[in-house]
Amino acid sequence: xxxxxxxxxxPYVVQALLEQQISVIAVDNLSTGMLSNISKNVLFYEIDxxxxxxxxxxxxxxxxxxxxxxxxxxxxxxxxNPVEDCQANLFGTLNILRYARQYEVKKCVMASTAAVxxxxxxxxxxxxxxxxxxxFYALSKISAEKYAQLYEKLxxxxxxxxxxxxxxxPKQPNGVISSLILRLIEGENPIxxxxxxxxxxxxxxxxxxxxVQAIMSEHTGVYNISSGVEISIQRLYEEIAELIGLKRExxxxxxxxxxxxxxxxxxxxxxxxxxxxxxxxxxxxxxxxIQYYKLLxxxx
Length: 300
What we know:
- The chain is an alpha/beta fold.
- The chain has a domain at 2-165 and 204-227 and 266-279: NAD(P)-binding Rossmann-like Domain (Rossmann fold, 3-Layer(aba) Sandwich).
- It is built from 10 helices and 13 strands.
- The protein has helices at 10-19, 54-61, 75-80, 82-102, 136-155, 176-185, 204-216, 233-244, 268-274, 282-296; strands at 2-3, 25-28, 43-46, 65-68, 107-113, 159-164, 166-168, 191-193, 198-199, 201-203, 221-225, 231-232, 251-253.
- It has a 7-stranded parallel β-sheet with strand order 3-2-1-4-5-6-11, with helices on both faces. It has a two-stranded parallel sheet with strand order 7-10. Strands 8-13 form a two-stranded parallel ribbon.
């Protein structure tokens, strides 16, 4: 079972599972995801994971594994509406865990985030680095992690928690990379919030592979899924402008509430234990993403 299967990351995970000839049940409430993102070879349930109706999917389908991607994923939205953020990210995860226990799921793979580390004092960030959430989004995700870990300790519901760095790729809604690309292609000046802040960008297809590897691995626990490469948003813009062959003067605005100054995660634990390795370079990922948006914006 893949939750959030119609969102940004979900379809890539579903595709990676199908390529391994693993049968997939897709779950999404379509609040932000799109039905067109779901493969026609996949059984789809339009269900909100925070509702009790979710049990019917477990009852009917008896999934062996759950990859839990469904989430409210916007830092900005979480600061505006922390209750809604908590309901999606914490209550939704709790629902997954209780049915996983009840229906004897072998393992849950839980999507988490680099945001749980806040502004780290030491880089690259390791899995045992200090947790210091700066947003309600990060707080809800670390709380969900703790519930998953306690479910494993108390009830033997095995879970692998994957803390994603900044994921990017085609079809991403409201991502910094997709926003910069689109504004350049559409002839608008890109908006950059500060520009000196750094991020660790990981291509979405590498995320999908990590989810599949986490299912196949006997290991549980917390793993950073990242490129291990730190880049500033200013440098990111310059890379994108160079690859597209267009340059416009950015509009600079102040860093927003809840945003982290510097972020780069060590991925050595995931490489050693999960048998996973990022296979896309940053430029390869950017090139594929740019090509997608160029095709999307071609006149008919």
